[in-house]
Amino acid sequence: MKLHNYFRSSASFRVRIALELKGLAYDYLPVHLVKGEHKSERYAAVSPSGLVPALETDSGEVIGQSMAIIEYLDETHPEPPLLPKDPLGRARVRALAQLIACEIHPLNNLRVLKYLVRDMKVTEEAKNTWYRHWVRSGLEAYEAELQRLPASTFSFGDTPSLADCCLVPQIFNGKRFDVDFSGLPRTMAAFDACMKLPAFQRAQPSNCPDNEG
Amino acid sequence: MKLHNYFRSSASFRVRIALELKGLAYDYLPVHLVKGEHKSERYAAVSPSGLVPALETDSGEVIGQSMAIIEYLDETHPEPPLLPKDPLGRARVRALAQLIACEIHPLNNLRVLKYLVRDMKVTEEAKNTWYRHWVRSGLEAYEAELQRLPASTFSFGDTPSLADCCLVPQIFNGKRFDVDFSGLPRTMAAFDACMKLPAFQRAQPSNCPDNEG
To answer: Which of A50, A102, A145 lies at the smallest CB-CB distance from B141?
Structure first.
């Protein structure tokens, strides 16, 4: 398999974690988002939507969207599972993942921040306030959802799941912008539990070949 | 089952479509987003994250996030299926759904538009330009993905799927803001095919009990 991705892309990071958790080898193909490589003709031939990450299977099929990729990996390489077996548990994990992937991250990715500054002409300070607002309020919602679930080591249960694949990159991302993580005990405990695992460590941006520090 | 939702919420509309496609009866519980009812204590007891929609199962479990709810419905009421059986087909449908639910809709929902106007003090015109920019560029990405897939009646294949549950509300939403839908032949053909089906018609905002026109 080949993963078209970028070291600092949170969505790419999610997929790298899943690949590492499942012990799957892959070729790392960097797509430099800041240099606009995702908008090149070469990349359009890989991913028509021009989005990163994209997983290229051994038979040459290209799959986009990080959560769709992770579910594909989970269905084709079931061990260790990244979703529970029962429908309610699966819904809980997917809803947690989507709280990050549909409520927080879309507001904070590179093209949105660029639009705010270049097209809307908002100040750097207003952009950073926007950023922190959505990460903080989104993580408060995540924490509120965790608080109603039984005690667990990770976001859901005692093994890492799709939810943790989404949570960890969001925390990394928030740290770069000095987001306040206080008062989020279960969320940060899940993050800490993840970061003790070699799979999460190996997948992090600082270990990527295109890492620029 | 009970669905906590709002007639004009795109994410609520997605779930209503899925319930109608599967022929499942449900109680319609309106949560008025513009009046802030989702932020009430009463609703926090239902949905800790305060987001709409939320599905309350017959055993009293509450599930949030529209795509998670629809997958839950598909797993617990498999007919008619809203996802293909094979992993690659499932990944294609999920990726299309996420192109809308993770790339377009999060930038255009009520709380984000409110933040732009109230907190960032952008003009009404700049807000509308922002809105159209993300819907248009997102649908162009959707169209580009459809163009590489085999010919089909709906977004993927010849039966409606999770992708169509997400597409149709996004088009409704875009129409309210006069988005340009030209040059999106496969996308709009899928939309038209959906709107011929009674399930999509029944689920639309104008048929909701809390519809304000």
So the answer is: A50
Burial class (CB in 10 A: 0-12, 13-18, 19+), B92: buried
Question: What confidence tens digit (pLDDT) does each residue in B87-140 have?
Answer: 999 999 999 999 999 999 999 998 999 999 999 999 999 999 999 999 999 999
Burial profile A135-169: b = 16 or more Cβ within 10 angstroms, e = fewer: bbbbbbbbbbbbeeeeebbbbbbeebbbbbbbbbb
CB nearest to A71's CB, from B75, B91, B115: B91
CB contact under 8 A, A126 and B120: yes
* List of domains in chain A: 2-80+201-207 (3.40.30.10), 87-197 (1.20.1050.10)
Put simply, the answer to whether A133 touches B148 (Cβ < 8 Å) is no
ipTM: 0.97
Residue of B nearest to A142 (CA): B49
Instruction: Name the residue facing A147 among B48, B63, B87 (closest C-beta).
Output: B48
The encoded tokens of residue B124 equal 């009404």
Contact of B110 with chain A, judged by CB distance below 8 Å, is answered with no
Distance CA A69, CA A79 (A): 15
